[in-house]
Amino acid sequence: MLTYLRKRIISSALPLVVVVVGVFALARMTGNPASLYLPLNATDAMRADFIAKNGLDQPVLVQMADYFGGLLRLDFGTSLRTGEDAAAMALRAFPATLQLAATTMVIAIILAIIVGSAAALKPNGLLDRLASFVSMAAASIPDFWLAIVGIWVFAIYLGWLPTSGVMGAAAWVLPVATLLMRPFGALVQVIRGAMVTSLSEPYIKLARSKGASEYRVVTAHALRNAAAPALTVAGDLTVGLVNGAVVVETIFGWPGIGKLMIDSILQRDFAVLQACVLITAIAIFILNILIDLGYALLDPRVRPTAGARGKRKARTITSTTEPTTPSEPTVPAVTGANA
Amino acid sequence: MMELLDSQRAAEKTLTTVLAVTGLDVDIRTPTGTVRVVNKVSFTAYQGQTLALLGESGCGKSMTAKAIAGLLDPVASVAGGVVALEGKDLNTMSARARRAVAGPSLGIVFQDALTALNPVYTVGTQLGEAFRIHRGMNKKQARLQAIELMRRVGIPEPEVRASAYPHQFSGGMRQRILIAMAVALSPRLLIADEPTTALDVTVQAQIMALLRRLREEENMAVVLITHDLAVVAEEADNVVVMYAGNVVERGPVATVFSAPTHPYTKGLLESVPTHAVRGDELSSIPGSPPELKNIPAGCVYQDRCPMVAAICRETRPELRQTGENQFSACHFSDVLVTQAGNPTNDHSLTSPQLEDNQ
Amino acid sequence: MTQTLNAPTGQQRAPKPSKVRLGGPSMFRMLLRDKFATIGALILAVVILVALIGPTLMGELATKQNLMFMNKAPFDPANGWAYILGSDSLGRSMLARLIVATRTTLMVAVPAVLVALLVGSLWGVWAGYHRGRRENISMRIADIIMSFPSLLLAVVVLYVFSPSVANIVLILALTRIPIYMRTARAESAELQSRTFVDAARTFGTKPNSIIAMHVIPVVTPTLLTLATLEFCYVMLAESSLSFLGIGIQPPDVSWGLMVAQGRQYLQTAWWLSILPGAAIVITAIAANLLAAWLRIATDPAQRWRLTLEKPARKALKSLSKEAK
């Protein structure tokens, strides 16, 4: 298990490194922050001083080496905008996004399990067709537009919910509902498909032959088998949730990492952007590891070390207590009769 | 010879009926209409005996087994007939009552153990499930029962292996686990649906030996679904030969195999290369079974039958008695009876086809 | 086999039945049998037609400001047909602006889908056919692109390079290439182990010819279905970018940008945001409906459902309803 985990960590870390280097390089190309932060009538000396102070006159490779050296010392640089520690700013924004994403995913998974399973029980039934319509709509509606319509109806027209902010439970309704749509729609289809497959597997018949109740058959046998494939998709959807978070946080003024990232780009605030990207990438990295571990937990067949040991054992345990009948008949089967 | 016959008769008189299937019909709904895949199938399985359902793939033998066990696919349904298990009709039972029967009264062994076992649970958990459902045991008690069962079906180190998953076992071991699961609650009837098809020949023999041992220990009635003539000859007391959804012949294995009274049974037995000489062409039944969608009027076997006559094209033959406990659905069964000479003399031979096999 | 002997370059047909004649008359008849797919195809056809000839017909109307017709509500015949969908704060006709935006929206979405389809499919088929290190490296690249939120990548890239139509197309294509790659690789890896590919290889056919002759025809239907779905995704991504201000830039106009511009008038003129959004939703749903039908129509195991006559389909429906 440890070798397996180490392998997974190494392979998941590669994208992490690529992303950090890539974003660093791209961020350097966004333009000279000196022109953005200094007053219009700043002298050339002031500009040179600003550039030198922030290390912008160094070659890109040197800047990058400095940057990585800083990362090792947990120094993410300071914000050009506020002079604050970039890591502190990103870490302050991160929990808001994490809460939003976690709430959304938990609700999406629970709802999708209920709706997806119910749809799979009666393929082509009313509920099934309703579910596939909902997930199709969810894949077709732009999230920013749904957010705007939500604000228009519930905040402006009906006045039930606030248009933005994080205060109180009501403020969570629209952002979560907007973010929920896409993962919910996708998960319903995945769970429905996995449930239809697992419900038609022979082990379902075996469970029924033991007299298992319908509830037990659906939950303990079918759903338990559908969980592993659904988990993988849920992981990918959580990564995709960051996309939605950027839009939703911008519209609802949610002080999360998505909004901070957009703001830093617009302000050419390198350090903060890099800190944000790095934290997001680390979060995704950790998420991928957790998904892998969860998958191995849900599906014993992919536990490599345990499986290898078991196989070796199984091979030695084919000897039995039943004596082999030596005169085993060689009469052909009936199916061969018409050959 | 006569003494043997008498003792056999005496034994038959004391037989206890476990399963009595009468006029069972099974339909499959397809987009182009309903197809009858099992037509008026009747047979009886006795305690302590093995009844073989023999036929080619697609003849309806598996469908019959699934109908008895109540495990038909959603597109298939029982259209008529009575399936009486220990006198109670399973077809008219409520779903709840049927679940109460599944396990304690009726066990089924599936064909492919790899797909039949749930891949995400340990075999110990799956073996214990029946005890948890029907006996209300807790996890610990059920596990002990599971280990005991594994020991009974000959799985070494059951205490350790109970925590292993299905994919960590060999094919033969998985089949043993499936069998253990089916007999967990000592059912009166065990249905074995081609239990050895997916296995190596040597392992097949072990599995059949295990089934035989368990049948004797538990005094169960066994319904064995198979397409293997040798297995029938070796294991079964009675045989039901099916063709295109219909029973064409049934009776004691010894009688049916030594003196078949249906041309299909005869053709099957002749296709077995027992007396084959090198260079001779092997006998085979020409043609292939009819599609279940368009079964001809008249006899189901008419298109491949060497004895076909005008009446076979018009009237479907009913099952008629052709010998001691032997029945055949053929207009010309009398001819076959005379051809076979004096069939009752052959009772001592359990499987004449296997005599000079080596 | 005689055929293969006569044509040792491996010209024999793939024996897999999944090669589907796209656009043939039977395909068209199957489309007409599916109500929803027909509607979806019709909507897409109208959208494409509007994008092609609409802007020419509209002429100056889309940019003509008319202070007499500021923020007119839609569906009021009194304002004349040009203002039937209302007008914006500068008195420009919403109908005309929507039509012009259709062209911009498609001009981003269609090329982005095509570029990603072409590059991703060929790359994936190639990687899957050759297996080994070429496959591993390719898939690792796909993983890297996929492991980062695509919108974020686009946001960063578009801020570095100016958000021109070409750049938007390229970044959207780049982030979607892995989708095609993964599908094409999986199918091609499965195909390359098939007997008919082995047979072609035995005759000394070059890998590229085998890929062109045996692999690509088989994977094409699947990839085209995927591309239809991706059209929907790419269109939504473009509108998200435009909404965030880093996609299409004024004075150009796309549906997403119109939603963003109308957002500040939400309280007074809802139609400025809602109508272009509705255009996005309707087009996306149409693409989805067509993709759902394509998935069945190009799957040999399921295609029979579409060839059934009406009564049989009804029977099938009631049948599956009964099925537990």
TrEMBL record, chain A:
Localization of this protein: Cell membrane
Membrane topology summary: Multi-pass membrane protein
Region (Disordered): 309-339
Residue spans of biased composition, Low complexity class: 316-339
InterPro entries: MetI-like (IPR000515), MetI-like_sf (IPR035906)
TM annotation in the entry: 12-31, 98-121, 133-160, 166-185, 270-291
Pfam families for this protein: BPD_transp_1 (PF00528)
Keywords: Cell membrane, Membrane, Transmembrane, Transmembrane helix, Transport
ABC transmembrane type-1 domain residues: 94-291
Family designation: Belongs to the binding-protein-dependent transport system permease family.
Protein name: ABC transporter permease
Automatic annotation (TrEMBL), chain B:
Main location: membrane
Upper taxonomic lineage: Bacteria, Bacillati, Actinomycetota, Actinomycetes, Micrococcales
UniProtKB keywords: ATP-binding, Cell membrane, Membrane, Nucleotide-binding, Transport
Keyword Transmembrane: no
Identification of the protein by name: ABC transporter ATP-binding protein
Signal peptide: none
Domain ABC transporter per the UniProt entry, residue ranges: 21-269
Family as reported in the entry's similarity comment: Belongs to the ABC transporter superfamily.
Family matches, as PANTHER family: DIPEPTIDE TRANSPORT ATP-BINDING PROTEIN DPPD, OLIGOPEPTIDE TRANSPORT ATP-BINDING PROTEIN APPD
From TrEMBL, chain C:
Residue stretches of biased makeup (Polar residues): 1-12
Highest taxon listed in the record's lineage: Bacteria
Transmembrane feature ranges: 36-58, 106-129, 211-236, 269-294
Annotated spans, Disordered: 1-21
Keyword Transport (UniProt): yes
Membrane topology: Multi-pass membrane protein
Keyword annotations from UniProtKB, A to Z: Cell membrane, Membrane, Transmembrane, Transmembrane helix, Transport
Cellular compartment(s): Cell membrane
Ranges where the ABC transmembrane type-1 domain occurs: 102-291
InterPro entries reported in the protein's UniProt record: BP-dependent_transpt_permease, MetI-like, MetI-like_sf, OppC_N
Annotated Pfam families: BPD_transp_1 (PF00528), OppC_N (PF12911)
PROSITE patterns to which the protein is assigned, alphabetical: ABC_TM1
SUPFAM superfamilies: MetI-like
Protein family membership: Belongs to the binding-protein-dependent transport system permease family.
The protein, known as: ABC transporter permease
